[in-house]
Amino acid sequence: MRDDDIIGLVIALVIVVVMLAVYIALIVLGVTMAKRKNRSPHWMWFAIHPLGLLITLIVMACLSPLKRCPQCAQTTPMNARLCGICGYSFMGPVAFAPQQPLYIPPQRY
Ligand SMILES: [Zn+2]
């Protein structure tokens, strides 16, 4: 092997390693962004393809964050007043909340 070939090989190897590091850093950025917004980080599996990485990063940056319900741990939009799953009130106790169940089953004799 000539010296030029070895130098070219080293330069190509350095370029591949740098591109891989940037690619992995962008995936980590997407996962961090998803976790910060309470979105599923599994969306970043689309990053297996470079175009999927680009699209997922753009979508993840545009999505609004979600908040997590302290009672059932499901996610709801940030502006929600009640949890859509369990009915937990994010505004604190509500004055007009019914104390009795709305439906009273008929008595059977
Ligand atoms: Zn809930």
Give a structural overview.
With 109 residues, the chain is mainly α. The chain has a domain of 62 residues. It contains 2 helices and 2 strands, in the order ααββ. Strands 1-2 form a two-stranded antiparallel ribbon. A hairpin with a 6-residue loop joins β1 and β2. The radius of gyration is 26 Å and the shape is rod-shaped. The N and C termini lie far apart (99 Å). The site of zinc ion has 8 residues, from loops.
Write a short abstract of this structure.
The chain is built from two helices and two strands, in the order H-H-E-E.
Looking at this protein, list some descriptive labels.
mainly alpha, 109 residues, single chain, binds zinc ion, rod-shaped, 2 helices, 2 strands, two-stranded antiparallel ribbon
Gyration radius, to the nearest Å? 26 Å
Question: SSE string, helix = H, strand = E?
Answer: HHEE
List the uncertain runs: none
Please count the beta strands (DSSP E, at least 2 residues each).
2
The amount of beta strand, in percent, is 5-15%
* Bound small-molecule species: zinc ion
Strand order in the largest sheet: 1-2
Average pLDDT metric: 90
Helix content class: 40-55%
Task: Look at the helices and sheets and give the structural class.
Answer: mainly alpha
Give the arrangement of secondary structure elements.
Blueprint: H1 3-36, H2 50-62, E1 66-68, E2 75-77
Antiparallel strand pairs: 1-2
Helix pairs in contact: 1-2
Zinc ion is lined by residues 69, 71-72, 74, 83, 85-86, 88.
